[in-house]
Amino acid sequence: MQRADAVIAGAALSGLSVALALAEAGLEVVIVDRTDPRAAVAGDGDIRTTAISLSSRRLLTALGAWDAVADRAEPILDIRVSDGDSPIHLHYDHRTVGDEPMGHIIVNNDLKKALLDRLATFPGVTIAPPGAIAELAITPGAASLVLADGRRLSGAVVVGADGRESAVRALAGLRVTRLPYRQSSIVDTIGHDRPHHGLAHERFLPGGPVALLPLSGNRSALVWTERTAVAERIARLDDDAFAAALTERFGDSFGTLRPLGPRRVFPLELVVAERFVAERVALVGDAAHAMHPVAGQGFNLGLRDVAALAEVMADAVRLGLDPGSATVLRDYQRRRRFDAASLMASTDGLVRLFSNDIGPVRGVRDLGLGVVERIPPFKRMAIRHAMGTLGTLPRLLRGEPV
Ligand SMILES: Cc1cc2nc3c(=O)[nH]c(=O)nc-3n(C[C@H](O)[C@H](O)[C@H](O)COP(=O)(O)OP(=O)(O)OC[C@H]3O[C@@H](n4cnc5c(N)ncnc54)[C@H](O)[C@@H]3O)c2cc1C
């Protein structure tokens, strides 16, 4: 039996980040995943890249994990959003709001490795041997995860960072709302003749958005969303046919496109927990809310959970209070619920507004794009929203210590 301040279920992006934030605050944490996290980053289990917003980068810098990925992170200097063949488009230039890039594209495995390396410097952090979660037991003053092999990990709080199908969430009796999109995203790396100059370009088409996001050299990360049956068919095409289908949809503004692989299809679904906390349990990341990648905000939203949870737990410990008490977890729930619900609702609205070819709807969205493009305050607000710097932010997202 192992006892800590927090037991974290899930050692992917959210679980490793929350472990590091709590460790930085001086808390003892135990992390467990059904797969070995070191082996996971060495393989190609997660081939995705992530658009990290400015506030997320500030958090990762404050946690000492950014320097290790900085050289391999590609800055986003411009964003272009276009709607099919419409001449109206949105163009965000980072200089509209300051000197810093709007965000960076990082390879998920690079970030996981940086988080694992940083975690290894904290004596109070234990990465338990892999194990699947079987039971959750709540006793006065403690919560325990019981693993399938009988091991028991106990702490003041169990943090569910175990993804969209979270076992912790189910065991805690937290219900979810699900909205299937019947869309899937094809992910690949694309080589191109012309330089991207830091441009992230997203083109909305009736089947779903196609985005090319800047990587080092003349390469971009592709996130191409289509109805699921179409996505599966396209993903099986050979490289020449795949490049031709992509060029047909995306155009040739980057020159000749070449898929570099590996290629994978991710089915999409909106899943949101009705509550993010239960007795001695808190959810973070996709376990709390999984969303469509159209706005590249899923993990950024997860980091906002991480910042808020670490802050309320660290403040409790500093005051000599129980970091897993109902008051502390209620505070976390209060800080996160509205922000997550509003981002999910706006992202879902965006998907539905753009994933069709209905004439009057096309007219309305082009009007919307035109308004945001031409009215500077709207545009600045949209950019700051994408950068994650709007509103009252927890300390870590402002780049301050937890
Ligand atoms: C195509 C695509 C593109 C995306 N692009 C972006 C982007 O540009 N920007 C952005 O911010 N977000 C993006 N996202 C979202 C982002 O990838 C996710 O929000 C993020 O990866 C979620 O991480 P997580 O750690 O919460 O969950 P997961 O990555 O799902 O990790 C859950 C972990 O828990 C473990 N686990 C699960 N069940 C159990 C169990 N029963 N027992 C033990 N362990 C268990 C798993 O092994 C896994 O390691 C994108 C998503 C997709 C699909």
From TrEMBL:
Oxidoreductase among keywords: yes
GO CC field: ubiquinone biosynthesis complex
Molecular function as annotated in GO: FAD binding; monooxygenase activity; oxidoreductase activity, acting on paired donors, with incorporation or reduction of molecular oxygen
Signal sequence region: 1-23
Keyword Cell inner membrane listed: no
UniProt pathway annotation: Cofactor biosynthesis; ubiquinone biosynthesis
PROSITE patterns: UBIH
Cofactor dependency: FAD
Gene Ontology biological-process entries: ubiquinone biosynthetic process
Domain FAD-binding: 4-343
Key words of the record: FAD, Flavoprotein, Monooxygenase, Oxidoreductase, Signal
Similarity-based family: Belongs to the UbiH/COQ6 family.
Name of protein: 2-octaprenyl-3-methyl-6-methoxy-1,4-benzoquinol hydroxylase
Organism: Thalassobaculum fulvum
